[in-house]
Design brief:
Keywords: Glycosidase, Hydrolase, Signal. It holds the Pfam family Cellulase. The chain has about 350 residues and is of the alpha/beta class. It is built from ten helices and ten strands. An eight-stranded parallel barrel has the order 1-2-3-4-5-6-7-8. About 35% of the residues are buried.
């Protein structure tokens, strides 16, 4: 922008500033504002993983207006759990109708001044069939990266939720780097989240990332000890019989801190931001122990400078009561105590 001023330099400078602010405001309103630096995602929550919104609304408790409640509660991002493989047809082509619904969700998220993370969530396919996953995952990111190239700079890509199962660190590193190459061919500056292998010993040292790509965030999930966090879960013959189990002894806390220290040490050495993409406790756990666990994990993640996302908004592990359209206050206070 070129502005010529003769005598009214102060007034002209003010006019220029107002013009620039107006341009920036219009860009942000359209979801085109500048993305945060990698890792600066803040507090978040997982949404839409098991919701019928993608099929057109059947069995869809999530309302797009819930995004307003999420923003008002103090969250700064949402992790959109998207099972892309189920919407692939011949040639692994994604259904355009579903993609338009995804566009609409992303735009609604951005309109609430929230950061959207698009998480490819086909864990079970990829953990059980590495060959089938490889072709589908590469096809998914070729289409998604092409679709969003040059659009929505605040949108973050997450390559794959919880790689593991039949995957080794070597096979995951190979697939991850292939997908990063596909994404970077059309989205060189996009923030991308890359997971470590999802096994109990948190093998972050085995993760191989392109050293020159500094727009990467490393993620892991934390549900340890799983006997506590999943007690009473009806889908598991083992977990469904557990409980009530407590959490919060000095030994419990020492174990969690030791796990976090492993990630902190690696991140400091490698100068990589960390994202705790999932943590939570199933609702059958004792309420006081559940709140203590959630608060402990969230506060220590923040102490270490990590962004985090609670699992999850509704369905099970829920922080929000969809029937009553209200937050579960004990969970929300544990996650964001300063506001609640």
């Amino acid at each position: 922008m070129k502005v010529v001023c003769a005598r009214w330099s102060v007034a002209c400078g003010l006019a220029l500033a107002i013009s620039v602010l107006a341009i920036c405001f219009r860009a942000d309103a359209a979801g085109q504002g500048t993305a945060r630096a990698p890792g600066e995602l803040g507090r978040g929550i997982n949404i839409l993983g098991y919701d019928g919104i993608w099929e057109g609304g059947w069995n869809a408790p999530f309302r797009l207006d819930n995004l307003t409640a999420i923003r008002k509660a103090g969250f700064s991002h949402v992790r959109i759990n998207f099972f892309g493989f189920k919407f692939m047809g011949p040639g692994n082509l994604l259904d355009e109708t579903v993609l338009r619904r995804l566009d609409a969700v992303i735009e609604e998220v951005l309109a609430r001044d929230l950061i959207p993370i698009l998480d490819e969530h086909d864990t079970h396919v990829c953990q059980g069939d590495v060959t089938g996953c490889t072709e589908k995952l590469k096809a998914f990111w070729a289409q998604i990266a092409g679709r969003y190239a040059g659009r929505y700079p605040k949108l973050v890509f997450e390559v794959l939720n919880e790689p593991g199962g039949q995957m080794t660190s070597a096979s995951w590193n190979a697939l991850l780097n292939e997908c990063l190459g596909i994404i970077r061919s059309s989205n060189p500056g996009r923030t991308v989240i890359a997971a470590i292998l999802n096994v109990d010993d948190v093998p972050v040292e085995e993760l191989a990332l392109p050293s020159g790509d500094r727009n990467l965030v490393v993620t892991f999930h934390y549900y340890a000890p799983i006997r506590f966090t999943h007690q009473g879960a009806p889908w598991s013959p083992t977990f469904s019989r557990l409980g009530p189990l407590d959490w919060g002894s000095p030994e419990d806390e020492r174990k969690a801190l030791a796990d976090f220290e492993k990630m902190r040490s690696w991140a400091e050495r490698e100068k990589r931001p960390i994202y705790l993409g999932e943590f939570g406790v199933y609702e059958a756990a004792p309420a006081a122990a559940r709140s203590k666990y959630l608060s402990f994990v969230a506060r220590n993640a923040e102490r270490l400078g990590w962004s985090w996302a609670y699992w999850q908004f509704d369905h099970d592990f829920a922080a929000f009561d969809s029937a009553r359209q209200t937050w579960k206050p004990d969970i929300l206070r544990a996650l964001i105590p300063a506001v609640h």
